Known about the structure:
heterodimer, A: ABC transporter involved in vitamin B12 uptake, BtuC, globular, B: alpha/beta, Rossmann fold, 6-stranded mixed sheet, 10 helices, nucleotide-binding (chain B), P-loop_NTPase (chain B), BCAA_Transport_ATP-bd_LivF (chain B)
Amino acid sequence: MLxxxxxxxxxxxxxxxxxxxxxxxxxxxxxxxLNFTIPTLFMLAGMVGWSLAFWGLPFGISGPLPWPLALAGxxxxxxxxxxIVERFTFRYLKTRYGxxxxxxxxxxxxxxxxxxxxxxxxxxxxxxxxxxxxxSADLTLSLAGIHLRVPxxxxxxxxxxxxxxxVWMMKSSRxxxxxxxxxxxxxxxxxxxxxxxxxxxxxxxxTGMLCGLAGALFAVNYGEVSPQMGEDIGSKAIAxxxxxxxxxxxxxxxGGVIIGLIEMMTIHWAGADTVQATVWGALLIxxxxxxxxxxxxxxxxxxxx
Amino acid sequence: xxxxxxxxxxxxxxYGRTHAVRGVSLTVGEGEIVAVLGANGAxxxxxxRALQGAVKPSGGTIRFMGRDLTNAGSAExxxxxxxxxxxxxxxxxxxxxxxxxxxxxxxxxxxxxVEKDIKAVYERFPNLAERRDxxxxxxxxxxxxxxxxxxxxxxxxxLMMLDEPSLGLSPLFVEKLFSLIQELNGEGLSILLVEQNxxxxxxxxxxxxxxxxxxxxxxGAAADLAADAALAEAYLGAEPA
Lengths: 305, 241
């Protein structure tokens, strides 16, 4: 019974990884860009949400906000931050310095944004973890002896809907086809009148939204936020993405869940200290046996959605 | 000559220090087939890239249907009726045949009319209809060219610009392609045809321009150019005229 409980917990944790892994996958497969600001956007939503719930709007405009409103504010800030990152890493530097160092420029500058944003939050709020005043932990559902906290169940449902919506969008909508066209052949997309610079912000908006929601869900479910909360999630999400297969949305989903389960199983059988070893061990084994990941098509290089 | 739809004046394209297109002035009239000929590196593809909006001209103007499109983005050009069928087809191989066709009409809001146009393309190219839900990779080179033309047609162009459409096709398919171009032209589409296959291009074109090192060195009626000794020497060289 305890094991089943841990599996349930693993799924919940995995759903946070899934959301972040899907965000990584989108930018990698469409823009061929490993966006290092993703963990920061995740953190930003959580920390801004906490700040709004604890202090209220800045400059004394309002007192503490109710937590759902505060988290919504956090998500909005994550989206705006993501668009700012697009403006100053991807668009500005890429158009200014051209294509010879195409991949390095956004990569390195997004790493810069990670450090800047993380430290800004640290200056403002200090580096201590803060308790997030979310919904009561007493709200539980009991199902065949497993206790599920209601917020967890809701989060899982949100993630499932989010991923299904995203998959539908990429497959069947006009904007999804445009994104796939840019992913495959930006020149041909341009010939048909798709202007990359107008479509790229959509990717960053989605990234901000996914990371923001993941950060909000994390704050609600684990009741704690800190300026470092993105680091661990970011690396686990990357691990999940690689295990699942680079460039595949379903791969990111499967990988995120697998990493969440591995983490919980490790805690169950071996204790929390061994988590890093099993997670990265799983990644290594995947790379050795099946370098393209579970659902990936290519071992290395630009993925396709 | 009928009224000019496309008109470039003293068009210049430079990449860094390379001056790819120098002062090219050309026109394509309503219902015309105009050929642009020239050797590799003569600036033909650069000219098309400038017309399509992928590169900004460093000088000169581009007008289409009376509008100045010199600094317009590619979306605006497609909307106003200019469509390029690029060299090497450039279809989306990760998409189905049907999705490729949909991409041609992605700027259009009239979805039911797009579906109708796609149906018309399927009637024109039954091979594509049979493979509509297959990935475009399964198509042969000729079928891919048909798909590229079909995709462009879904954009409802007034002027279709074709960049080396015969490249890599079997002689049989080249024949088919050129009669297709004539057929489309007969339906009212103006054509700007960039070709290395000088003979066939001059056969279907009404007028032609010859580019050399980015400049127009010869222009005139296609029939006159076909008879021109200088052109024959320069471009028709090895083949009998």
